[in-house]
Structures are given as C-alpha cells and as structure tokens.
C-alpha cells in the first residue's frame, strides 16, 4: 500500500474535486492510556488513527448544498470525493450557505511539518511514580483507582479557496480516586495537562491522602439548601454546560435559557452582580487550542461553510453581563450580528479575586465544601435547570476548618441562576472537569461560594 | 427473506493474513492469549432543523486491534493499516504495552475458558440503510418533519435519523474465527412550541425507540409513524396548558417508553460485575449490588423478574459472539425480586468464580479495548398480567409516565431522578389530563420494592439507546431493554420549577 502523508491526501482530494467548493481535512491522532483500580493497573492501550474528511459544496441552482463523508486510514481518495459530491447533490440547498472562507486566520501553523505524536513512553516517569503511590496507599490501607491519558491530534485543513491550515492539539488528563478498603470513604484529585511534564503523582496522591484524612469523621446531613463552596472542578462542569448551551440561534428563536421574554436574546442582560468574566481564548497559557474552525457537520452552533474561520478570543460574559453567543456566519448575516465561533477552552475569572480555596474555607463559619459533580443532566431547558450528584468528597466546614465528611446529595441547580447567586469568588486556576473531561479538558475556574445551593435529596452512594 | 451473509466487501479484507501475522507473532513473543479484531463501522447521521436538512454526515471507521495477555498482564494496540506487517507491529506493540504495565499491575489476568467457535452471524433486518440513496432518506425524513411543522402551534421541529452498520471479525489463539454484521437505526422527531410573551417553551418527542432493524423501520408500517406524528402536536398543546404538578408522593404507572431507561440505569448498570468489583470505581462508579448479595439481596418486589440476553431479535445488544469470542446467551439477573446474576466478561467471570462468561464483552471501535458492556437487560411481563387500562384502572390518585427525557443516577446506583415526555394525571382509575414540571426521584431498591403490579405481554415493548457510556477512554454501546408497563406505589414526585426556585 502506498503511504501518503496527510498533506498529500488533502492535495489529492482537492485536486480530485469537481464540486463548486471543497474542504478537506485529515486528522492524525495518537493516544496512550493507563487505567488502574485497587492499586493495580487494569487496562491500557496505544492507538494510532487517521481520519480523512471531505466536505463538498455543490450549487444546485437554488443554492449551495453540502455533503460530508469521512473515512479512517488511507481511503481511496477519488471514491471518497465522489461520495461526498454525491451526498451534496442529494442534499438540497443548505440554510447556512455563505461563501467559503478564503482569508487565512492568524496562527495557521506549519503546513509542511510532520504530525506531532505521542506514545506509551509519555508515561516513562509517570508509571513508576504511580507504582510508588500504589505502594504507599497499600501501606496505609487505602485503594487507588484512576486513569491517565495523553493524546496528540494534528489536523491539516485545506480548502478550494486556497487555505492550508494546520493545528496540533496535545491533551492529557489524570484522575486519581482514593478509597478506604470498604469503599465507604471516597475522594478525588484530577489535573489536565498538555505533556505530562507538569504532572506530579506525588502531589495528586498527597491531595487524596489529605481528603481521605478529612473523611475519617462521618457526618450525616439531610437534604436542604446549604452554604456551599464549589471548587474549580465543580464550577467548570457547571459553566461548561452553560457554555455548550450558548447558541445564538436557539436563543433568538426563543428556545434556550438565553432567550429574552418577548423576543430576541439576552445579550446585554446582567447575569451576576459580581464582575465575572467567562471567556474562551485559543492562546490562553496552558490551555492552547485551535485558532480556527474545523467543522464536519453543520448544526445551530457551527457550519461547514465556516471551515478555516479564525476563532479569536471571546468574552461570553463580561463584567457580569452576557456579551456574546455562538453564532455561525450565516446566522450572523441573517440577524445582523457578529459571527462568533466556539473555542475549545473556557475560563471564568473575577479580576480582583485573590482568595485561595483554603482561605475561603478558613472564612467559612458553617458550610459544605464539595469536590466534584457527577451525572449532570438537563431537567428544564427554559431555566437550564440541571440535576446531578456530589461525588468523592462533601466536607463539612465549621469555624473555618474541615470537621468531617458528609453524605452525598442529589442537587438541582441552574448554572445561569447560580451566576446571580454566587457571593464570593476566589482565584482562578487550571482545573480538570470531572463530568465532562471525556470531551472538555481545558478549563480554568475559581472556587466560588453559593449561599443556598439546592441539595434536593440524600444519595447513600460513596 | 433470504438469510444474509456478511457483506463480501468486508470478507474480502485480508482477514486470514492479518490473523496469521498477528497471532503468530504474539505467540512467538510468549503471550498466553492473543486476539485480533478487524472492524468496519459505517455511520450515517442525518439531521433536520424545521424540516430542512441541516447536516448529512457519513463516516466509516475501519481498523484493527491486537489484544494480548502476556505473563498475566493485558496489552493492547490498535491501528488503521490492514497489512500483515502492521498486524505484526501491533502484536509487538501490545506486548510492549503489557511490559510497561507489568511493573504496576498486581492482578493476574486469566480468562474464563470458552470453546472455539467458527461461523458467521447477521442481525435481523430487511433493508440495509446504506443501500438506500441519501436523497430517498432525506426526502422521507423531510416529509415526516413537514407534517409536524404544519400542525397548529408547532413552531420548530428538530428531527433526524442515525443508522449504523457494524462489521466485526474476531480471531484468537484458541482457534475462534467469527464474522458478524449488524444494523441499527434511530429516527427521532421533536416538536417545539414557543410562547414569546411569557418566554415559555415546551417540546414533545416521538416515542419510537432505536432498534436493531434496517431502513424498513420507517417504511414497512410495523411502527405507526403516521399515528404518532399525528398525535404529537395535540399532546404538546395539551402539555403547554397543563397545570404544574403538586409535589408529593404518587402512585405511578410507568409506560415501557419510560421504564426501559429506569431499568437501564438502576438494574442494567448496577448488575455489571466489573462495577461491583471496582473496575469502574473512578469513572462510571461501583454498585450497591455487591457480590456478597448474590442470591440474597432483595432488589425489588416478588413480581420482579429481570433477564439479561444478547439474543433477542432486533435487540441493540444482540450479537452472535461477543468481542472475546463468547457465544450469545440469556440468563436471569433478578428472580422473584432477588439478585441472582451479573453481566460479565471472561476476566470478570473468572474473578466472580463463574465457569463461563455470559458474553458481555464489547468494544465500540477498532481503537478501543473490549470491556464488559450491557446485555439487553429486560423486565419480564407477567404472563397473565393486566393490560394498560387494567393498570391505570387500579390507581385512585396517581400519574401515568410516558416517554424518557432526562435521567441521572448516582455512582452506586442508589438515588435516581427521571423526567419524561409527558405525565398524565390519574384520578379514580382514569386518565385526567396532563401535568407539567414533573420529575420522579427514588432509591433503586425502594422503587423496585414498591412495584405492586406488572403489566401483561400486551404492554411489553423493546426500548433502548445508542449512546450508553462507560469506561476510560470513553466508549459508547447500543443496548435494548424490553419491559411491560408497571405500577409503583408512593413514589416521590418533584416539581422542577420549584426545584429551580430560590
């Protein structure tokens, strides 16, 4: 079999295209992972994959139609292009049709360079350190569970309008879950990383050991509203959901939480009395991500016509006020509003905040300190009411100190409503979402204080 | 209908050469077990917004994977180049991964034995969706969506269809060689209404479940699409005008279109042995149904009979052999309300002291390692049980719950909360209009313990989902759940507007 480079595949496909427009992208990915349970490795893997995606644009007379066909490996390029064109011809005019992007975005990347790669060797230092943590846990009578993953994805995107763009996305995550041997106590620490060089197993293990220590005293509390400190991870899982829902079209059509009563959207509405900023930035240090759009399939929040469009930094909420929603170019034209693309990272900040989580605990007379949130699902889209569980550490704070571990709760809360009720915000730091880290690992969030978090019922789970 | 064979284009891949190359190399390197999977998964997703095609995406995932047990440790490697040289490289890489892992692995992997199998299996479907021209598919979906759009009060329609064709070849060092092909389809239509003056909006989705059928699911009349699409707008109108529920305890008649998901979350996942043993503890979670409760744990009322199977026709988890070469089976999980069985793979079968796996290993792509995934876990109807009217007729004040919507359950599968597509008030044994803002919340064993009546075969249907998530790296699996309607006494009902209030 002839081996073609990703760049050659893009050029071949573009050359084979007889359509009115064509976008081709090749995603080269490598990944390595380790998984462990009860102080022993369980599964593992090293994967290599290549996806070739062809989006054809065909003018059917009444408007531009599109079709997307994707294949893994080294497919027959001519067949792939023909299938994509046939799909476009079968499709009828697309509602999101606008001219393809022809202006190269800033940060287009080195087209000619080989794809970046990772391998199981990325764990050369991590694995022995993990082994040492297993030994220490065994000596204490604790159990460690968890997962580590590193991936490198290089995307080469070419268009019939002349764009040749490349972006590398390194991504990594580590989750460490500590339990007592009877599973009655359970705590968590996690971290996102680009390269594992900044991951300290010892630090994660120390965090787990500290929280297991806090869990020695068990306190049962009933359902109710509690003053609650949410650490950055818990805040990220709530804010990511609020972000994923920020589709301008849904809002303009009156069908999401950002719709304005009486018509239109809520841009300009104050969501918080605090000067909170929720933003995305492809250049955010440590959270770097693609500076342009790569879209295989259109939806209300992304359009195949926008492939290659620059995705600059954007404030979603600025100074507590809703300032932007996600809006593909076609909907932007229709509503005479700016086109705004989603970016694959998220930061929440209060510019004047300085308090650390420990300082916020010290300033708490009586309240709950959470660790992570789990099984988050939408209950009511109108208010964006979400339900979920607390997981791996609900701690009782009394007189500025953690005095024990509380049972878990099922909670019902809306992140948009919470923005208006947060009464203290700490210093923003990089964090790993717990619920959404399969899809979203690049987040920086502060710890926050909510005076009346709704713990709807008790969960006996640990 | 002629019995089908696996598509010639898949059988024409160099399966024997890859097998020979990978397994020979693995044995040479000292592996006590090795298996090779070659998979081709074709996926098409068609989405429409307001009866207009929004996206048509067609994907194919073709690749191969070698999994080994080397000196008691797993090793796994996957790639996309189907050559003997690559198969050898993957076998070597899998052994290298096993060696890196050995330093931190203290559990010894041993697989429960399985007799070698040789053969082909194809799921029950009539029309391969990938043989139907895209234009025909989008035309039909557009036409059905337009019917909803045209109805009074419907402002938006979100609709679409996803269909998958999965082809798998499996070979292992015990001599098993299997070739399989299955097809599944998931059409959905949701109508939305918006009240601009109040800012309120509501939706109603079709109840048609995803199934292991072909394109005929939309065309052969066995599912009443015409009837259901005709009803949705009126049901939606009624829902928008319905009173908000008074929270409290109610008797619930739960329709199978809702109950399948409660079974999935509170019985299906809770009886996965890998969870009970802690393998999913950091992610999907563990289970309250621990191994010491096998044969004694009171799961629910004596009416509760739950089976696991990978055999039911049109089931989404139905196969010929699993991804470890184990033959499809059927078994009891809860009998007379008592926990009597788990879902296992070959390694967890051995850990659980079972002589044989019941065939629940599944990998969702050639890139992923097989893990224990869910069988079709089903609540059996009472052979002489009541029909739906009989169940509702036995309730003085209650709620009839129809269609799944929101779901959430804790990491030990105790505390859950579900909503639905619609909730009908029951008064004096009769339906008395819809209620809004309803969620039901319970603890698994309390809920199943409160089951006072199980519907008869006339109320039975097969529900299911394409997107059950588990494991790290994350994998999705399709699974079906058969169930009758059933009556549950004194279940906690929340008002979701009050829950969201301050």
From TrEMBL, chain A:
A Gene Ontology molecular function term of the record: metallopeptidase activity
Swiss-Prot/TrEMBL GO biological process terms: proteolysis
One Pfam entry name: PmbA_TldD_1st
Keyword Hydrolase: yes
Keyword terms, alphabetized: Hydrolase, Protease
Domain Metalloprotease TldD/E C-terminal span(s) in chain numbering: 224-456
Family of this protein: Belongs to the peptidase U62 family.
Annotated protein name in UniProt: Predicted Zn-dependent protease or its inactivated homolog
Organism this protein belongs to: Geodermatophilus amargosae
Automatic annotation (TrEMBL), chain B:
Record GO biological process: proteolysis
Keywords: Hydrolase, Metalloprotease, Protease
Keyword Heme: no
Gene3D superfamilies tied to this protein: PmbA/TldD superfamily
All residue ranges annotated as the Metalloprotease TldD/E C-terminal domain in the record: 247-493
Metalloprotease TldD/E N-terminal domain residues: 34-98
UniProt similarity note: Belongs to the peptidase U62 family.
Name this protein carries in UniProt: TldD protein
